[in-house]
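Known limitations

Files may contain more than one protein. Parsers should not assume a single record per file. Below, a two-record file is shown to illustrate correct handling: read the sequence, read the token line, then continue until end of file.
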Amino acid sequence: MSAARLPARIVVGATLLIGLAARIAAYTGQSFSWGSDESRFLGVVQNLANGYFPSGDAEWFGSRIGLLWPVAGLFRLFHASDAVAALWPLAVSLTGVAAAYLLGRDLAGRRVGYVAAALVAVAPLEALVGTRLRPDAIVPSVLAFSVWCALRAGRSGRSELRWAFAAGLLLGIAWSVRENALVVVPILVIAGWGARRRGLVAGVVGAAVVPAGAALLFAIGAGDPSRPLIGAGTEGAFRNPVDAFSLTDTYAAAITRDTFDPGSPLFLLALTLIGTVGVTLYARDRRALLPGVWLLWTAMYLEFGTLFNLAKPVRYLTLCTIPCALLVALAVDGRYAALAPAGVAIAAICALWYLPGRVLRADDSTLVARVADRLRSLPEGPVLAESYTWYAKLTTYTARRRLAIPKVQDPEFLSPVDARRTRLLVPLPSPADSRAGYIVSGPIHPRAGWPSNWDQARARIAAAVASKQLEVVATVGPAMIWRWRR
């Protein structure tokens, strides 16, 4: 039986399972590189789970309610770990598969919707970021649903106000995950053009709900209602966009360089885009207008709008995944439509095959979570480990008091000398600091993201473990928890 004859819920459900399998295969745990966004996000999440409201300049991103607060709730329910932190971005990332189907179906029919959904399910970049606690796994899916609601508002007649309100509400939710979600406003206006002025007013009202709620929440919890509204603008770093522009550092250059690299999440992307644009222009398919404008507008923002205050990590390209998938699905619509998802699946397998972090997740994600569970059953105390990854994760995940969140600067905006200085951890932890707590020994996998001076701390910790001043209080697989002899 062909997919066209099956109920849509079965086809989309099967596609979601494929997307889930791809994201599980790409799961490497959360990044705890020194000063990384994820490590700081998770520090604030743990503070929230322990009942501490975000405060201070270093915790400005605590106002990203849609990103961090659901994870804090999960930490309260299940305890903190990489896997629990991955549940929220994973769930929302998978809804992007459903959003792609709905948009494709309403633009051109079920077959286009199925292909678009399959492309999003197996796209290498989506699989890689789909379990990371970053906005890149969440914002694109929420925005896609917002665009779909706007499209429905422009076509639905009597129920246009409800759809327009929903589109605005979802835009507000996306804003609460990352502030630059507002860049999609022109696309919402185009998608919902048929709703006219009444729909626009309803959309604005819907979009105001989340910021108003966030302001009220922070007025009660922190006495600062403006914090969620202006926090990102006051804490961000800005630069001259003319000085920041470089042809070699553009997304276009990155896509071109990596298109023949089977280990890159951008593998074959340039060829796919060229082929899709060629077919679309030749066919003059008007159904491609909305996703085409959406992709072009987003690409222009990422290429030029980010020059003011953002670097250009590849993960930002997830904003382009769904409109790109819609264009590809429209371009291949026909007898051989299934070949497009198959090709992307091959690209995903190549990218994941070379993913280095996958071989480390047994130790640096699963085993460290088991150690954290064991530490929670012991009397409270500071934790130290030879592996910086373990030290950072255990310190965060076993915290019962407020964690101090470091204020870091983006190396992108610093001179080379200052950038090297930010790689230093000062002060370094010492075994003497853990006399009232524990030292954990276990598998050690050095990473590029460790502080550049961590070897000094590691040598001191190894010497303490080798001495006869410590005793083992617990063993978890190959890991051992030590404490100072009484």
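...continuing to the second record:
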Amino acid sequence: MNDYGMAEVEIENSDVIFRRASKKYQIDEDGNIKWESLGLRVHHKETSLSVVIAKLSSKEEAQVDPDKYEVYQLKAEIPRQLLLGVFHSPSKNAGAHGSIAGFFTEKKQRELAMAMKVLK
């Protein structure tokens, strides 16, 4: 149980995770997620990259506002192959919230971006 009394779910390598991206700022002209958007914002004191665990949610819930955001997906094994952790980190208002954590480098961010596929 976490601080909110919610059980944390084990994330398997085959599980899909979603990442929401701003159409205005985080997606390039070819429709790919920009690698720069997959890093930690140090000025916000982030320690992990927020994602949504697909088996606990839906594209629509992850997207929030289809006019502003696209949803990208990848399997949990991809960040793990890059020595990044993937885990369920539910919060009071987001039971499907997950995190990717570890030492992010430009190379890892680029590899994550290349692996992400937009959901249509």
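Parsers that stop after the first record will miss the second one. For reference, the second record is described as follows. The helical segments are 59-63, 77-81, 106-115.
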